[in-house]
Amino acid sequence: MTSMTNGQPHIEFRGVSAFYGRKQVLNDVSFSVPRNSVIGVIGPANSGKTTMLKTINRTLDFVAGGRFTGEVLVDGESVADMRDPNELRRRIGMVFPLPVGLPMTLYENVAYAPRRRGVTDKAELDEIVERCLIQSVLWDEVKDRLQMLGTRLSGGQQQRLTLARALSLSPEILCLDEFSIAIDPVTTMRIEDVLKELRKSITIVLVTNLVQQARRLADNTLFLWRGEVVELSPTDVAFSDTPKDKRTYDYVNGIFG
Question: Which residues contact 231 (CB under 8 A, 6 or more apart)?
Answer without folding.
Answer: 221, 222, 223, 238, 243, 244, 245, 247, 248
